[in-house]
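ESCALATION

Customer reports they have been waiting on this structure for their group meeting. Please prioritize. Original submission:
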Amino acid sequence: MSQTILSLKDVTIFQEGNAILSNVNLDVKHGDFLYIIGKTGSGKSSLMKTLYADLDLNNGEGTIVDYDLRTLKEKDIPYLRRKLGIVFQDFKLLPDRNVHDNLEFVLRATGWSEKEEIQVKIEEVLDKVGMKSMTGKMPHQLSGGEQQRVAIARALLNDPELILADEPTGNLDPQTSVEVMEVLKSINQNGKTIIMATHDYALIMKYPAKTLKCENGQLFEVVQRTV
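Update from on-call: job pushed to the front of the queue and completed.
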């Protein structure tokens, strides 16, 4: 039986003191691919931020990669995030460092020290996203899609149990979005669990998977129509 990697029970999601999602119940298993959809302001990003402990969980029960979100101490948040790969809409690459040095910075910040091991790991994750030949490029020399591929590689550095992708194609054109989605699907097919918040319905139709919708303060599963 698949192991649960995320469990939320009767959770209320708050943003700036206001409840924006209530009675959230969610169970995600190892290897799942899950979409979270909804209009801007419906709670998608607040839910994602709660999962990586940028927002506190004050109501209900929640566990993620064996961490209890209700009792999580601030000193443990960095350790939680090492077990998560987080991909943002705006890439968040360091503009003054090339691709290699962006990834090396993350590894050294999370305790890696052996130069050879760092090099092997960087090559490994860049190979997975098709960016192995771009190690010397600066972020401004890359297209949006290439920057997002590097961001996905960065999310893979510490072999996370779960990848949280918050609107990863939000700043990309349709063709580039498809290319990034192919990378994410390949990573999922190799066993990684992915939760992706998106408003890109064309991608959901092209790459169907379990889909949850934030609407009117609730989170519920959407049954996709097949043509």
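Sent to customer with the following note: The radius of gyration is 17 Å.
Escalation resolved.
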